[in-house]
Every structure is written in C-alpha cells, then in structure tokens.
C-alpha cells in the first residue's frame, strides 16, 4: 500500500469494506478470542490505520482528499454518542459506529468483516488512543437515552408540530429553512479542530448517525461533539416535542423522491434501530486495563 496513491488506497479500502467478507480483515483460521487490547491493536493497524493513521491521529495514507477527513481519534471527541454533550461515549456507542459505519461518509461499517468480539477488541484499543478514557469517569447518568425508549409514531399532525419546533429551536439557522444544509450560519460552520463543518442536508436522507427515529432522536438530544451541532437535551425536554422534531426532519428526507433513493446503496438506508447485539460482549468480557497509570475498570454491570 505504501506505493498507492491516496485515491487508489481509498478505493482499495472501500472495496475491501464493501465486498461482504473474503477481504484481508478476518483470518478464518484464527480462533475467536475474547475482547482484548492487543487483538484490537492488530486489527486497527490492519483495517483502520490506512485512514486513521497508525497512531489514530487521522493521518493515514488514504486520508488525503477525504472530506470529512478520518477522525483524529487521539482527541477522544466523538460525534455519535448516547451520552451528554462533552462526555465520553459508551462502549456500545463506539461498537455501533464501527459495526454500522457512518453512512454517507468514507467511514465504512465493519459488521460483515469483523466479529462482535473483534469489534469489541477495537473499542478497547480505541480507548488507549486518547487520555480522556483514562482520566474521565463514565457515569450511567450521562446516558441520555432511556433503555425503554419508544418512538411516537409519525402522523401528519406530529410532522406539523415538528415543523413549528424546527423554526422555534433555530435548526434552520444552520440546516436552512427547507433543511438543505444552507442556513445563515452554514458557510462559517467550523469543527472544534478548525476544519470546515459541512452542515447536514436533511433532504439527502442518509444519516451518519443512523436514520431510524431513535438514531435521529439520539443525534439532536446528545449533540455531535466536535461539530457545531449542539445538544438540545436541555432546551427541548418534552418527549412528544422531541418525536415531533424527529418526524419532521425525517419527512424532509422524502422530498427528493423515490428515484433518488433507488440510486443509493440499500445498506445505507437500513433502519438501524437495535445496537443491542453489540452491547453485551464487552460488558461481560472487558479485561482489566494494563497497569500503566490506568484508572479502575468501569463496572461491567453497566454494559459499557
Ligand atoms: C476509508 C477510510 C476509513 C477507514 C478504513 C476507517 N475509517 Fe473510521 N472514519 C473515517 C472517516 C472519514 C470518519 C469521519 C466521518 C465523519 O465525521 O463524517 C471516521 C470516523 C470514525 C470514528 C468516529 C465516530 C464518532 O462518533 O465520531 C471512529 C470511532 C472510527 N472512525 C473508527 C474506525 C475504526 C475502528 C476503523 C477500523 C475498523 C475505521 N474507523 C476505519 C474513515 C475511515
Ligand atoms: C449551530 C449549527 C446547528 C444547529 C443550530 C443545528 N444543527 Fe444539526 N447539525 C449541524 C452540523 C454542522 C451537522 C453535521 C455535523 C457532522 O456531520 O460533522 C449537523 C447534523 C445534524 C444531524 C445528524 C445527521 C447525521 O449525519 O446523522 C441531525 C439529525 C441534526 N443535525 C438535527 C438538528 C436539529 C433537529 C436541530 C434543531 C433542533 C439542529 N440540528 C440544529 C449544525 C447545527
């Protein structure tokens, strides 16, 4: 790969990610191991470093020309979390991002190539890339999505209510009056690392954080750390209001018509409602951290 030009490297990586198995990632002769940092490191270097860099700082060979660029994982700042703004993601959050990818960006989903244990190993390794995981406590009360969360079904009345809230909450300042990502603040929007932030276009209908109602609820309730997208947890406390806003923004995704949808990869539109299959492995099997200045292990019972 050292001799590949960046574009060729990206294509190779994406082909590998989309080919539905048989790539270089999983060696079937390797026995399945319990989640483990060393295994996570091995997998990271084999599958992720091409984009994220061997140190996880986003400087992989294929990073050049990618927009948005691969995340600098050493900052410990994650967009797609079920936890309060400014706090660390749960392990299940990281597992979900790795397993399902961030549709519409270059970040592929790995659940076809990697087993649950391998994804869990990668999560353990990711936690060594940023000091935040050693320095900060992850608290159950930071998780803003109740376990028994259940969406309110979209009706025309709920969508109308959501449209009014979209205006009232100022979503259009960034996302634009019609949700096309062209609000007044969009041109100047900056990420915390100083790079330009591309404000999401709701009519595109493909969400990095997942496009099921629960995914969209999670995104605007917790906010996207590192991006200008704020958390609306405090400013929009009513459950009914939250689901109204979800129903409205999802309704905008239909405005480009069926042909647009049919032209997109089907897996990108799959509703991804159930991160549960990725949750238990780490909770039960997370090994103790290595002794090098690490804090006490997060309690397994919390299912982090
Ligand atoms: C083809 C390039 C590419 C490869 C390979 C890749 N990533 Fe990414 N990854 C990205 C990009 C680009 C982003 C940022 C996308 C965005 O913000 O829109 C990203 C974002 C992420 C995030 C941030 C999620 C968040 O909540 O902010 C994590 C975690 C991540 N990648 C982990 C991995 C792991 C683990 C692997 C290997 C199994 C991997 N990536 C392989 C390109 C890649
Ligand atoms: C200050 C600007 C700003 C405001 C106000 C704002 N957003 Fe965002 N939003 C963004 C940006 C920028 C992104 C894209 C971030 C990224 O992908 O890195 C985004 C992304 C999103 C996404 C995620 C799309 C995905 O890819 O998963 C959703 C959902 C969303 N916004 C909903 C809302 C809603 C609902 C409101 C109003 C309650 C709102 N936003 C207000 C800037 C804003």
Walk me through the structure.
This protein has 304 residues and is mainly alpha-helical. It has two domains: 24-145, Cytochrome c-like domain (Cytochrome Bc1 Complex, Chain D, domain 2, Orthogonal Bundle); 156-269, Orthogonal Bundle (Cytochrome Bc1 Complex, Chain D, domain 2), CATH 1.10.760. The protein contains twelve helices and no strands. The two termini are 35 Å apart. The model is unreliable at 1-24, 257-281 and 283-304 (pLDDT under 50).
- Report low-confidence residues grouped into runs of 5 or more: 1-24, 257-281, 283-304
CATH superfamily assignment of the largest domain?
Cytochrome c-like domain
Oligomeric state of shown chains: single chain
Q: Report Rg.
A: 19 Å
Write the layout of secondary structure elements.
Blueprint (H helix, E strand, L loop, with lengths): L5 H13 L18 H16 L38 H10 L15 H14 L2 H4 L20 H13 L2 H5 L37 H10 L16 H14 L4 H6 L3 H4 L9 H7 L19
Helix pairs in contact: 2-4, 3-4, 6-9, 8-9
Bound molecules: heme C (2 copies).
The site of one heme C has 29 residues, from helix 1, helix 2, helix 3 and helix 4.
Q: Summed up, what is this model?
A:
The protein is mostly helical.
Key features of this structure:
globular; disordered C terminus; 12 helices; 38% helix; binds heme C; Cytochrome Bc1 Complex, Chain D, domain 2; mainly alpha; 2 domains; single chain; disordered N terminus; 304 residues
